[in-house]
Amino acid sequence: MDLERTEAKITIAKLIELAYSKDKGMTVKIMVQKGNAKLIVDQNGNATLSGSAGVLTFSGTPVLEKIGAKIKRVSVNFNNKDGMKVGYTATFDLEYIKLSILGDFDLEELITSCSGLLCRAARALKGRHHAYDMELQKIMGH
Question: Are residues 44 and 58 in contact, defined by beta-carbon separation less than 8 angstroms?
Fold first, then answer.
């Protein structure tokens, strides 16, 4: 199965949210720090978010399992020039091809889009919620 650009952007958003759910303080410090940050996920789902503010490791497996394409590696370079506005360049190494995308998003909008316990519980009950994916798509730029 091929990975589409829209799905790749939603995957980046969900990986950031996964990092945030593991350690919101460190994730925010890394992402809001002026300059560059990097997110790497290997084929086993081992994820590392790093920047000048620190390093956070977590499992990206829950997000990668839902893609349906065989991922060898995901690499995302973030550049924060203006507080909460974050630009990114991402490369998805798939089994046979590489997919590169770029865009920008509002970090505060992403983090506050649906991070409450009630919202997470509702999503868990409904599985992958289409409306939520559409919201993430809008945040990450179509």
Answer: no
Using one digit for the tens of pLDDT, what is the confidence trace for 90-141? 999 988 889 999 999 888 787 777 555 545 555 555 555 666 677 777 777 7
Give the C-alpha separation, 60 to 101, whole Å. 19
Judged by phi (left if over 0) then psi (alpha if -120 to 50, else beta), residue 83 lies in left
Q: Where are the domains of the chain?
A: 5-140
Rounded-to-integer distance, Cα 121 and Cα 140, Å: 23
| Secondary structure element (H or E) that encloses residue 133, with its range | helix 130-140
Query: Is the CB of residue 49 less than 8 Å from the CB of residue 30?
Result: yes
pTM for the structure as a whole: 0.79
